[in-house]
Amino acid sequence: MTGQKTILRALAGETQDVPPIWMMRQAGRYLPEYRATRAEAGDFLSLCYNSDLATEVTLQPIRRYGFDAAILFADILLVPQALGADLWFVTGEGPRLSTITDMAGVEALKPTDDIHETLNPIYQTVRNLAGALPAETTLIGFAGAPWTVATYMIAGRGTPDQGPAHALKDQHREVFEALMTRITAATIEYLSVQIDAGAECVKLFDSWAGSLKGEDFDRYALDPAREIITALKARHPGIPVIAFPREGGEKYVGFAKATGADCIALDNSVSPEWAAKHVQVDGCVQGNLASSHMVTGGDALVRETRAIVDAFSGGPHIFNLGHGITPDADPDNVQLMIDTVRGG
Ligand code: CP3
């Protein structure tokens, strides 16, 4: 497999002496060049829909650090917007959406085929990136997983416990499932066009998967992931998929086999030693340094980074954080993490 990009080699199951590395939210507010481009765009959503500027911010961390992968600059909440939800961001607080509480709300969503009208600038960003990235850099597309996207569409905002979504699921299951079906169909189409436009791998972000317990986890995190991955691989044979059922805990075990995912992204609530034994046995894993080290740096960063590289050295591994880097991170700590991974 020599000659192939390092990320694609890891996703194909190859164990490498030095694991390839990228970072969730690598294009973000901790970088001065990101803040400058975002100011030029006006606001976050304008930046997402401006293909030239979205291309620019995607490339910034590649230029600065030479990460092995670039992730498309966009947001998981663009799919609800493309389905007809109102979406806006309140500075310092986060996203706000119009809410869905009943079947009329689900039925008022736009047909799946109409999402591309809104999402066309995102596909253009993917095409720009496919032409602009260095030959060794893998382009990752992404979408939110249906449960996580549904939690925002139901509550109209981020919630600490996903309470409104759990309530709809438990009290009006038919409404909840109709919404999940609509999001799943839109996600398949969205990712499929990203792949046609040049994404070489796609990642499904299920940030709130950990709040689904027992059978609910299987029905609303695992089953939708399998449905999406199966559809994508039928249309795009060989396309690698990274699944991130965040805070999945013991549910990480067997998730790759059950869904067809090529790689499981791990948050930092699971120890690398445990994950090597129980998750990496089935294939590639990604993770899982705590993002707090990007704020605090120093010996602890170096020690933890080495421990993660060592624990996963016996199998395919992509180094990453356990969640997105935060705005208060120090760009020098990112360099220290990369140097530690690559230099030992
Ligand atoms: O990783 C990357 O660099 C790619 C781009 C990306 C963004 N959001 C850009 C972004 C990706 C992959 C996402 C995913 C996303 N978005 C998730 C899943 C992953 C996760 O973090 O759990 C979720 C839940 C969202 C929804 C979302 N977008 C929230 C809750 C917020 C507000 C919180 C915050 O950090 O401000 C956003 C905004 C957002 N998405 C920013 C970025 C760079 C910050 C916007 C800004 O510049 O002000």
From TrEMBL:
Main location: cytoplasm
Subcellular location: Cytoplasm
Cross-referenced InterPro entries: UROD/MetE-like_sf, Uroporphyrinogen_deCO2ase_HemE, Uroporphyrinogen_deCOase
Residues annotated as binding substrate: 25-29, 75, 152, 207, 323
Pathway: Porphyrin-containing compound metabolism; protoporphyrin-IX biosynthesis; coproporphyrinogen-III from 5-aminolevulinate: step 4/4
Record-listed E.C. numbers: 4.1.1.37
Protein name (record): Uroporphyrinogen decarboxylase
Record's function text: Catalyzes the decarboxylation of four acetate groups of uroporphyrinogen-III to yield coproporphyrinogen-III.
BP terms from Gene Ontology: protoporphyrinogen IX biosynthetic process from glutamate
Family from the record: Belongs to the uroporphyrinogen decarboxylase family.
Quaternary data: Homodimer.
Residues covered by the Uroporphyrinogen decarboxylase (URO-D) domain: 20-29, 140-156
Positions marked as site (Transition state stabilizer): 75
Keywords of the record: Cytoplasm, Decarboxylase, Lyase, Porphyrin biosynthesis
Entries under PANTHER family matching the protein: METHYLTETRAHYDROFOLATE:HOMOCYSTEINE METHYLTRANSFERASE RELATED, UROPORPHYRINOGEN DECARBOXYLASE
Gene Ontology molecular function: uroporphyrinogen decarboxylase activity
Gene Ontology CC annotations of this record: cytosol
Catalysed transformations (reactions): uroporphyrinogen III + 4 H(+) = coproporphyrinogen III + 4 CO2
